Amino acid sequence: MTATRPRVLAIAEAANPEWVSVPLVGWSMASALRAHADVHIVTQTRNRDAFLRAGLIEGQDFTAIDSEAVAAPLYRLASLLRMGEGKGWTMVTAISALAYPYFERQVWRQFGARIKAGEFDIVHRITPLSPTIASSLAPKVAAAGVPFVLGPLNGGVPWPKGFDSERRREREWLSYIRDAYRLNPAHRRMLRAASLILAGSRHTASEIPARHQHKVRLLPENGIDPSRFNLTAAQSPDGPLRGCFLGRLVPYKGPDMLLTAAAPLLRDGRLVLDIVGEGPMRGALEALAAELGVTEAVRFHGKLPHHEVQQVLVQAHLLTFPSIREFGGGVVLEAMALGVVPLVVDYAGPADLVTPETGRMIPLGTRPEIIAALARQLEALAQDRTPLVPMAAAARRRVTESFTWDNKAAQLVEMYRALMVPT
């Protein structure tokens, strides 16, 4: 008989409530599951103190695995090979793939006997999110007769044509041979052994071989904690149109394209722009703003603590975010949760989140085409912002109905139960 609350061993090597990006995703999903299932989280020792500060009890709620003997030197190697802070993410992932097997061996050493003894109904590897990193746990868990859940997997979005210079500036040399991961027999064994494969995007779902597609379910990696994003944008009809860019200041996120497209409106006072984030382009962007004559209309906030981000974002009418290679698009959901309408490129992660009712999307094209399309959208909304009010309301509804962490956890538990039904 299926238990009311599934007993879940949640593997989240990267999970930290005090960090952002993948560690915050890992933490948010694993901790949200605790309201719907009996969950024991297994994470890496670097996250231990943050777990304790969050009120979790070591041994009862979580176990911290010390894999630093392998992880630490490889992390230092990855930092050297990426050739710049915030660059070379494909290289970082590749080096992580070398360190991760040692972590899983330690997990099996501590939990293998308990898995074989039937103490868990489900084993779910939440992080790493990268679809390229194989799991040696998957076939062992499957051999023990316990369903193994993988994901949400996300990443590997192809670089669009015409953006090779951005690719080189990001030091993404390894991305040219990324597909070599498919040749790894451990990766094929993982997919065979998994009972359920969660894909964080339509692109990643399409990368799963056809013979495993019956096990694939779409579940975007990002979600919203309503306690963190609990304000509502006014969408005021008065004053200039307000845009906000939120993200790392790196080439593929397109902040320079945004400044160029917005320059005429910024100069004549019909648009003001907040830029929240830090990165290697900061100096060049400030110089570009001066060259375009828009310095007075653009405010660079730098990197803000996560809890302060919504204070700036909620003042905007639009999230102006022309990224051309976004895997998940967490900032898009954050804006939608606040009733800030996203203006994004119709490609990859954001395209899975934004609908015609909840935001505006511009076609993926060359740099000049994106800049021109972005300028047209901004000009139209500066002239008439009335469409923003219903879109903002629809965006908030969409997030509330489908993208809170609690909602996603409830969806996951229903998937677990389906796997637990005797066949």
UniProtKB/TrEMBL annotation:
Glycosyl transferase family domain: residues covered: 238-379
A UniProt-annotated Pfam family: Glycos_transf_1
Name of protein: Glycosyltransferase involved in cell wall bisynthesis
CDD domains per record: GT4_PimA-like
InterPro entries with a match to the protein in the record: Glyco_trans_1 (IPR001296)
Keywords: Glycosyltransferase, Transferase
Keyword field contains Glycosyltransferase: yes
Origin superkingdom: Bacteria
MF term (GO), any: glycosyltransferase activity
